[in-house]
Each structure stands twice: as C-alpha cells, then as structure tokens.
C-alpha cells in the first residue's frame, strides 16, 4: 500500500470512529465509489456501467435479504451494508436462533434467542448482550424474569427453580444480593438480606409449623443477635454462632412445660438441610455467537467472523476491503477523495479534537523498578524501633481473645480506651525478655481494630507472621511529603506509617464513623486500617513514635507497571522526573494521566456508587486532600517491550503462544457467566478493564486533566483505592487555601473546603473512569 493510500485509510478510519457527523459525511463521500462485483473475466471499465452500479449500490444499501452464508448460517430480514440491520432472523448451524432487532450487525433492541437444548431468552438486548428486562427459561424448567446487565441478572427479578424453589428480590452480578424472599419447595421461606448469593445480614426464616427465627445471619446460618420463636409463644433470645464458645442466650417458656429440652444447636442442624439452589447455567451466551459476514468486495476471500456485539475477530483484516476505495492511484477519483478527507481533517483540527496527521508515539512497557525499601538489619538507625514494634504487635495480637460480635459499644471507640504496657529487657509476667532497648507500648482502641481485622478477614496468625516473623521490615528510601516514614513487610501485604499527633487525633475522632462505613460497604475503596499503636522510647526525651498499620494496595499477583495518584487538582500535579527516569515505582499525578479507564458496565455502576458513598463519608468527616491511587498492569506486550493495543495482530517474530494473554470478549463472557470466578475480583482489586490512550490539545492547558481519546485501547488490570484520608480541613489548610488563592486559580489548588474537594474529586474521577459500552 502506498503512503497516500495509508494516509487516506488512516484519516477515514479515525474520522468515522470519532463523530457521528463525520461518519455521515464519510458515507456521503464513499457513496460515490463503485462497488461492482469483480471476476477475472470482468475487465469492463465502461463509465456508464460504473455509474449504473453506483446508483444500484446506493439504492440497495437498506433492503430485505434472504441469504445462506458461506459457513452454512441462514439469515432472513432487513440488511444494510453487509450486516443485519432492522428486524431479522438468524439461524446458526449449531441450532441457535435469534429473531428480533439488529443494529449494524449487533443484536440491539427486543428479540428472542433460542438454544438447541430448548432454552430461550426473550427480552431486551444491547450490543449483543442480554441487557435490560427479559425472561430466560431453561431446558429443565428454571425460569428468570427481571432485569439483566451484560448477560447477568442485575436488579430486581423473580426466579423459579426446577426443584420447586423460588426467589423474588434483588440481584447483583448474577447472584442474590440486597433484599429478597426465598421459598423452598416444602413451604418454608426466608425474607431478608442477601449477599453474594447467600443469606447474610438481617432476616427472618419461617417454618411451615409456625416456628421462626428473626435476627442476624452469616453465610446461611444465624450469627449474632437473634430470637427463635415457637408457635406456642415461647422463645429463645441470645447471641448465635456455630462456635459453642460464642453461643449464649436465654430461654423464655410460654407455660409450665415449654421446650426445655431444646438445644440451640438443633437449629443449625435443621438449617443445613435448606440449601440455596444454584440453578442452571446458560449453555452459550448470545454475545459469544459469531456472525458470518457477507463480503461483497472485488477480492475473493474467506468470510470474516464477527461476534454478535459487532467486533471483528482479532487478527483479521478490517471491512475496508468490501469496497474499491482507491481506484487508480493517480486517478481523479483518488484525488477527489483525498481532497474531501483533507477538508475533513482541517475541520476536526479546528474543532480541537486532535491532529490526525501526527499520531501519538507508540507506547513502551514501563521499565521495572527495583524492589522498594532498605532492609532494616542490625546497625540500622531504626533497628531497635522495628524490634519494639514487632514485640508490641506480637504481644497485642497474641493475647487478644476472639471477637464475639461485630456490634461494638460506644465505649470501645473512646480515645481514652488505650492500654500502656512496659517492656523491660529482662521481661515481666506479661512481656517476654528481649534484646532491644526498654520501651513502653500503647494500644489505641484495641477492640475496634481487632474487630476491623476480623471484618477484613485477616487471620491473626498470618498477621503476626507477616509483621513479626523472621523477615525484617523494609524502610522506604525517602519519607513522604508529610514527613512520615513508611515501612513494608517482607511479603508486601502490610504497610506501616509513622503518624503525626494531629493525624492520630483525626483517626481516633472518625474511628466510629470509619468502622460503621466499612462494615456497611464491603466494597469500600477507602484504605484499610488494621492497628494504631505508639512506642515510647526510654531516654531523656521520652520520644513517642505513633504508627498505623494499613493494607498495601499493590500486594497483588499482577505486577504494577504504572502508578497514578489522582486528586482532581492541577496546580503542581505533575511529576518532576524526566521520561528516562520514570519506572514502575514512579508515582505519576493528575496532569501526567494519559488514559481513560473503561470498566465493564456492572462494575462501573458499582464503582460510581461506591465512590459517591466514600466521598460522602469523607465529606461528613471534614476530610480533604485524599486521592485515588491507581496501579495499572498491562496485559499485552511484545518481546521488544512495545505495548500491544487490543485487537492488534501478534507482532512479527512472535507466535500466538508467545504473545501475552489478553482478556478476550469470550473470556469476559465466561467470567460473567460463572459467578465463582468473581471471587478473585473485588472492586478495586484485580479488575479487568480497557485503558484508552488520550492526548491533550495543548501542553499549556493547565486545567485540562483528561485528554481527548485516541481510540487506541490496551487490555489492563486495575488496582485502586482511596488513600491519605487523615487530613482534615484545619487552620493550616485554610491558611494555605487563602494564600494560594491570591496567586493561582482557587479551583486548581488542592487545599479547598471538603465539600468542594469531594465534588471536584468525583467530577474528575468520573471523567477518568467510564463505562465500556
């Protein structure tokens, strides 16, 4: 292909993709191009024949067609530009069939999809997915009627199972979650809260004999406060648990006899017989079905395969071959087309969309940074402090009794609820002998943090092993901007940060609200705190070192290639390192951001909902200056270190096996259809997504944080969370705001009122993250 042809193809491709107006203009330009069939014997170049063919092509762009496609598939219905468009019926060779609305080769609108097994789905479709309101009927009698999002039950719906069970309530990502009612075939039923497909929260279970349990649940069994009532009026009130040591309560008979011989454990044995039916799995998702595309080009080639959502299979040529665009390289037709496209380019540049003639420089896989931190060994200035910290945590965690209930009394959050313990070198009745210097150890609100560790499913033995094991901690090479020092455990699971007194006061002040927030929202993105402690070193200064133990956001099976710290402000929000010095450990900022992150629809809805909840919580606590820390793992790269855009062919010199694995549409469908595979994915953790590269209109645009999309996508895994949540809007921040507002635009500085900060933060994050629709 000549440079001229390459230039015109690139310009046309980008123009059509970026705007609907450009697409209409491009169609008008290309409508004058001949699309007549071509064979080896057809050498006619008669101008009148070309003109007749052109007119016929334009008239037949939208028409009714009945075709047996080359692979044996059959389609009858409305047709447009080599794709089903309008209402039509498509029958695959394996027996699957779709009757309904189409849009440019995608199932879009109302329709009915049938499987060879006899299963059917009738309802709304979007981009190839079951999405909207619809009814699925399985081959064995399972039926679901309700809301769908990307092939998953999501919203309100009613499901009847083949065994006679039924559920009516809320769904999320294919599982029962929220409020719902489940009735078993024998008439017993549960009404209450659900989570991840199991009974969880508050609810009532009613037996057919009139007995009932009202109270708290955990994974299908009573856990916490609850009441069991008999039909004769007697009842048992107490704390319920599978662990006999945590079980306690009081029985209140209604008469003289009552149920005195009843054992609360009998309830667990009885409930074990009532399992939640998993139901049938959809045999083949509609979005996984392929279409055989009709090719009317002059070049005779094998039919291309596209999925029902309209995407061409990876590694095959695009649809531009279906029309003879170029004519003669030096002909008038090519020249006129070039002029039309040059005019379109000038219009796009004038609108500021981007310069199509100067594409961005191809991206390289960021070079790997060295393992962070200096190991604290004997002779290190903080060696004794590390030993003191490890001794204190081993003492605190090892001696604590298990948490009986997550319902804490207000006294547990009292800042005065702290325990001082002296650690002399020779040891005491409660502390072991040690080789470090003598020190005093303080635990802040120990019951609260013990409950938080349980809430976050942290095993006490693993927790102690990570922090207090034989492996030393690592100190990061330089302290943070606040002057705090950071330490990492050897397994990278936990980060320890030294705290200023003011930060400690903020955390203790907001601890009750923080506890209630993370308990109410399991997918909260705010940083997780596991302990708050203080070491007082012996000596003339009696120096106090306060520190908090947090989860390390980037402890993942995926290596992090790029890190962004995003606040939504522009002043000073760029890295001061040259490109050659940036590696995978470099923390980039708002104005360094060169991507838009596109999440699957269900996850994006969860993401926006959780960001709103977290920001409301921080705003209520008068917190500002927090940020969203985002780590990016690029899934595809070549041996040479070039990042491979999604949909690109395997680079020359690499086999398909050598190319990095990409999250294909089929894999996404498989992931969505199997809820058990969601266990490894939590909001903000190991999330598959697409990153679309962006470019800025001008390097001088100070307030422009999110650039214009280029249409260049990369398959990525995202890890993110909200950090630095201990800065309140105190007098120092108010003075900083007043001083900087004189010199700079007030909306560009970080130090602003929490309400304004929350609003600006959300506005920016919802531009940087979007729905991958």
TrEMBL record:
E.C. designation(s): 2.7.1.68
Keyword field contains Transferase: yes
Gene3D superfamilies: 2-Layer Sandwich, Histone H3 K4-specific methyltransferase SET7/9 N-terminal domain, Phosphatidylinositol Phosphate Kinase II Beta
Domain PIPK: 377-769
Keyword vocabulary terms for this entry: ATP-binding, Kinase, Nucleotide-binding, Repeat, Transferase
Top-level EC class: transferase
Protein name: Phosphatidylinositol 4-phosphate 5-kinase
Organism: Brassica oleracea var. oleracea
Lineage, broadest ranks: Eukaryota, Viridiplantae, Streptophyta, Embryophyta, Tracheophyta
